[in-house]
Design brief:
- The protein is an alpha+beta fold.
- It has two domains: about 80 residues, Arc Repressor Mutant, subunit A; about 70 residues, Dna Ligase, domain 1.
- It contains six helices and five strands, in the order ααααβββββαα.
- The protein has a three-stranded mixed sheet with strand order 4-3-5, with no helix packed on it. A two-stranded antiparallel ribbon has the order 1-2.
- A hairpin with a 7-residue loop joins β1 and β2.
- The termini are far apart.
């Protein structure tokens, strides 16, 4: 990803390189705040604005995507290949799902229901409970029924 940053014309400062490395190594689509918290121990003079502005510049250059998958801050995704997302309703974890792993509708030239709107890409978002949250709920005594089990009993 650093080579792509250099090729896009963005200056590679030590702070930017650290942010890019951290983002590229993290499959969970971190927020700017999460990246800031992780990096401030090694770069104590770096500001939150530096992290946010770097992520904004990367997104503007097409090197990452800013995602609004749930209430709260944007998450940043360095994977620019077509893919879908799985979002945990309990902890907010976000994971990529390769687009070839799911039968997705193909992008059409235009949407009949939205005249003049041309589809650039199609993304599916799967919402549910991740394995870690499901395992934690299963271990807790007296746990409440999951949204899925409530739906089956209703």
């Amino acid at each position: 990803m650093l080579a792509c940053v250099r090729a896009s014309g963005l200056k590679l400062t030590p702070q930017r390189m650290a942010i890019v490395r951290e983002l590229a190594a993290d499959p969970t689509h971190p927020t700017a705040q999460e990246l800031f918290e992780r990096l401030r121990t090694t770069l104590p003079t770096m500001s939150f604005a530096t992290v946010y502005n770097t992520l904004d510049a990367l997104a503007a250059a097409g090197l990452c995507a800013a995602l609004s998958l749930a209430p709260g801050p944007s998450r940043f995704d360095p994977n620019m290949k077509p893919h879908h997302h799985a979002v945990c309703d309990l902890c907010g974890e976000v994971r990529d799902i390769p687009s070839d792993a799911v039968r997705a509708p193909t992008a059409a030239r235009a949407l009949p229901a939205a005249p003049g709107f041309e589809v650039r890409s199609v993304e599916q978002i799967y919402r549910g409970v991740c394995a870690a949250c499901a395992a934690g709920a299963a271990r807790r005594p007296g746990r409440a029924a999951s949204p899925t089990s409530r739906a089956r009993t209703a």
